[in-house]
Specification:
CATH architecture of the largest domain: Beta Barrel
Distance between the termini: 29 Å
Number of helices: 1
Number of domains: 2
CATH topology of the largest domain: OB fold (Dihydrolipoamide Acetyltransferase, E2P)
Structural class: mainly beta
Number of strands: 19
Strand content: 25-35%
Helix content: under 10%
Strand order of the largest sheet: 11-18-12-15-16-17-19
CATH superfamily of the largest domain: Nucleic acid-binding proteins
CATH class of the largest domain: Mainly Beta
């Protein structure tokens, strides 16, 4: 989708850049949507995660990340907007009458047929199979980490991973971050590059738009009145943050401090991400 710029008739439109959306107005499928209920970033009324809120009211679309309806062809009946993610959703109509949502690759059009199978499939956007059945250099998304659990990584708008090598029961996959990781060849993945790759180029234009999507405004640490409210607080505006390095409100270093705890999975990393 192309980017859309606005005439600067208001301060909020002066630097706003959005994505041109051409989604048809259709009736929602009640069996594929559920309500988002409960508080966001709150626990018993107190803030448990700063700078987050529920945003505008929206329904959650149930997406088929497992693709476990094997060897049954499905036709793409329409492309729907999803307010909970950056990429679009493709509505599949299976031959037996069932309907499911999947993440839409950019080259998947209305009227195309897709299939998910444990055996080899045609190298076509939207088809899903295990990594062992895909050739090297294939662009994939919605990749499983554990066989049968459903896709957990490479699900953001415009993202894709590449199969670099296969050895025995493992496949080396280059992730969008640049990291090359070993993943079981039995894990499923979907072929294609997700749409809305221009989402990285949008500009909200004003803080109110961010609040609609659940991002509350932030206050810089140095803007606090005294160090009792924030370690950066006080008269430090001319000398930085008043410490050797920036820290969080609770004193944890904010730059260069390693927070990764699941180090037992480091053995699956072939090449670390680019810095």
């Amino acid at each position: 989708m192309a980017l859309k710029r606005f005439r600067p008739v208001t301060p909020g439109l002066r630097k706003k850049i959005a994505i041109k959306k051409s989604y048809p107005k259709v009736k929602k499928i009640r069996s594929l949507i559920v309500a988002n209920s409960g508080p966001v970033a709150r626990s018993k009324g107190t803030v448990s995660m700063r700078h987050r809120s529920a945003g505008v009211k929206k329904m959650y679309r149930i997406v088929d990340f497992k693709r476990d309806k094997y060897n049954v062809k499905a036709r793409v009946s329409r492309v729907d907007y999803d307010p909970n993610r950056g990429c679009s959703l493709a509505l599949l109509n299976y031959i037996d009458g069932e309907k499911r949502y999947i993440l839409r690759p950019g080259s998947l059009k209305v009227g195309d047929f897709v299939v998910s199978s444990k055996s080899s499939v045609e190298i076509k956007a939207g088809n899903s199979t295990s990594l062992s059945n895909l050739p090297l250099g294939t662009s994939i998304h919605n990749i499983e980490i554990y066989p049968g659990k459903g896709g957990q990584i490479v699900r953001g708008a415009g993202n894709f991973a590449t199969i670099m090598a296969k050895e025995g029961s493992w496949a080396s996959v280059k992730l969008p971050s640049g990291e090359i990781k070993k993943i079981s060849a039995l894990c499923f993945a979907t072929i294609g590059v997700l749409d809305n790759e221009d989402i990285k180029n949008i500009s909200f234009g004003k803080a109110g738009i961010k609040k609609y999507i659940g991002r509350r405004s932030k206050v810089r640490g140095v803007a606090y009145g005294n160090p009792r409210k924030h370690p950066h607080g006080g008269s430090y505006k001319t000398s930085g943050v008043g410490r050797k390095s920036p820290v969080s409100p609770w004193g944890q270093p904010a730059k260069g401090y390693k927070t990764r705890r699941r180090t037992h999975t480091d053995k699956y990393i072939v090449s670390k991400r680019k810095k």
